[in-house]
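Review this:
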Amino acid sequence: MSISAENKERLYTWIANVDDTELASDLATMQANLEAGKEGAEAAVADAFFQDLEFGTAGLRGVIGAGTNRMNRYTVARATQGLADYLNAHFDNPSVAIARDSRHKGEEFAQLAASVLAANGIRALLYPRIEPTPALSFAVRDLGCSAGINLTASHNPSSYNGYKVYGPDGCQIASDAAAEISRRIGEVAYFASQGRAPRLMGYAEAQQQGLVSPIGEDTLDRFIEATLAQSLETPEEAALRLSIVYTPLNGTGLETVTRVLKDINVSEVTVVESQAAPDGDFPTCPYPNPEIREALEEGIACCRARKAEGAAPDLLLATDPDADRVGAACEDGSDYALITGNEMGILLMDYVAGRRAARGEDLARMVAVTTIVSSAMCDDIAAEYGFELRRTLTGFKYIGEQIARLEAAGEPDRFMFGFEESYGYLAGTHVRDKDAVVASMLICQMARYYRAQGKTLVQAMRALYDKHGWQTNRTISLAYPGADGAERMASIMAGLRAQPPAEVAGRAVAEMVDYAQGVGDLPKANVVEFRLQGGGKLIVRPSGTEPKIKAYLFAKAPDQAGANDMLDQLEETARNLLA
């Protein structure tokens, strides 16, 4: 890849202006490799500078390092100045809650964001230690803040960090707000030599002036109390034994998850020692994603060890680094079976509805929310219990928006449960994002409920398949890295629209749905769906946070073997279409 004159100019501008020692060293290495004609040097500079790190509805997310397309103190300061300009234009005396996870540079970026906000007259309130994403969403509402900033890259590899922005409702910002903030960021220069650069006040000075202060323990206490309020157990059920192995994957979940489990009488909790302490390197799982088995191997080994000691656990739980998503596994024969995001969402939806019905609640007025890419079995469960099921676009902010609509109508108590297939779940309205803390509580209570019936969660899910049919799912992601990745992704999506396939996995396409044209009352989105004759479908959408296209596969068959065979055929077709 050849480097453009514009990218080379950006490199030398950064070299001339950067005063951060670590970044200056990275830039000097780039320059030396480029001038020496080293293989890959031009591609490295192009990837670091070919664009400004995009600020979308999920904020910023990228590799930590030097350059305009990287997460560093200059891109973070610039984004915060744009956010500050937006807040000062829309709010009187604005304030911002800030949290971070265990990733590298998290504390530095949090303090830098607070310093920029303070320089703009905006009060910043910081959690004094790492805390989960749902605790940040809660704090925004609890403290009456105008916005929230969360320094996290969720489940991405250790080389990443991110910068998520939340609105005053505790949801990730809506598209119109994101667009305005992005525009205002574009009006800010990285360096004073280029124009209007971010304002900056010393962190200590900002503290002295009362513009930066810690979020108190009372806020976290109220978050825990609101979580416990979602419990659906009777005292008799809560007295039953449950043994679990838990791993926070070197992230933020340890404090809050174990605290909640203790409060619901799950006293037999074994924490995976190698993944307990916060560690931005994630040394035992390079991709700290509870969706994948590799991330859970340490936990599975711990389960096996506990069993060998005569104390086999009922369940393995794993929360991702910012504890907004949770995965689970149960012993299944000689191995451990991972429960997928869709399966856990179905299990929890069925459990919550069943427990509420048992308490005599009128489910006909209740609302559950999921996404267009979540399991079709949700419709069957809604029909069985009689509650309303709403589907949104992918992204938990859309589920949060449905809660806000109920709240605006004076009916927030109608919200029963929400989930998306990528391991995000929510009960209660105290948080407006996916919440692994409340989900971990409910999963343990559900496991205890089924344990009393002699079932594991894996066996409970099989019972639901037997009842509602084998409606199964699989998600695949294809990566398109580098400076030309975005162009390739756009070309693929355009091709699917211009020449849609007549058949998928040997089944005729009965209908193509283009969400970019608008479907119902959903916002327009870059998503295409192919509905197949005889059941099943394929949904394709570019990721909003990574250079990937995701394909969501939906199979429907009378038995497990038939469903798996259909998923394999759908995957083969999808990979060919997206190659």
Notes: The chain is about 40% helix and 20% strand. The chain has a mean pLDDT of 96. The radius of gyration is 24 Å. Residues 560-578 form the longest helix (19 residues).
